[in-house]
Amino acid sequence: MRDWSHAEHVQAAGVEIVRMAGVLRDGDMSAPVRTCPGWNLAELTAHLGGLHRWVAAMVRDLSERRYDRDGMDMGLPADPGGYSAWLEEGAKVLSEALLSQDPQAPMWSWGADKQVRFWSRRQLHETVVHRVDAELALGVPVLIDEDVAADGVEEFLDVLPYVRWNPGVAELRGAGETISLQADTGAGWVITVDPDRFHYRRSLQPGTVTVRTATSADLMQVVWGRRSADDYAVEGDTGLFGWWREHSGI
After folding, report:
1. Tally of structural domains, the chain
2. How much is the average pLDDT of 197-225?
3. Which of 196, 218, 227, 246 has an alpha carbon within 20 to 30 A of 144's alpha carbon?
4. What is the dihedral sign for C-alpha 33, 36, 38, 39?
């Protein structure tokens, strides 16, 4: 696995935003998004483009507090036919804000890392996951770069303990059971569920339960809940992984 810099996360996020805009350009914006129940593509796009602009505003100000996203004017077009172009414009807005600041400058975030660099990584993977949502909704092939996907799996594990809006995360405690996530392309992690917390390490070792996929791209979709149980192999304690999946939604 590679280690990423802030600038590389910013660049990759911009690429992903433009890529998603291209997916949406000729799509039916009223199409339901089955992986985000209750949303259609227009609502998904408004959510993601709004997030990019919300983050950009906080980064520009090095805000020490969370801005009220609902109270901000995101410039969303009245016609959903303009949403794709609006989303793409957000790539520049976000990138310029993120690159204008020191990656280690302190600011508010909802994760453990209270620095600008939290947001370059977070917005990359937020965008990748929602691009997958759009592609699944439109029935087009899902392709994720392996380096991006491997970092996406690890970022999921890094931020999961701080997902306060899902009370199930607080219940991810155990007696030392291990959940191994393995991609045939060579990336792997082992999660240990202890009485007081869970933690992970990079490892190719099997666990109490082992989940195997062909690629890191597949594995990223599994941990983010974008793959059904028919799309990956589980060895060992299947109930343990079912419990993990039930409690680890973001």
Report:
1. 2
2. 97
3. 246
4. negative
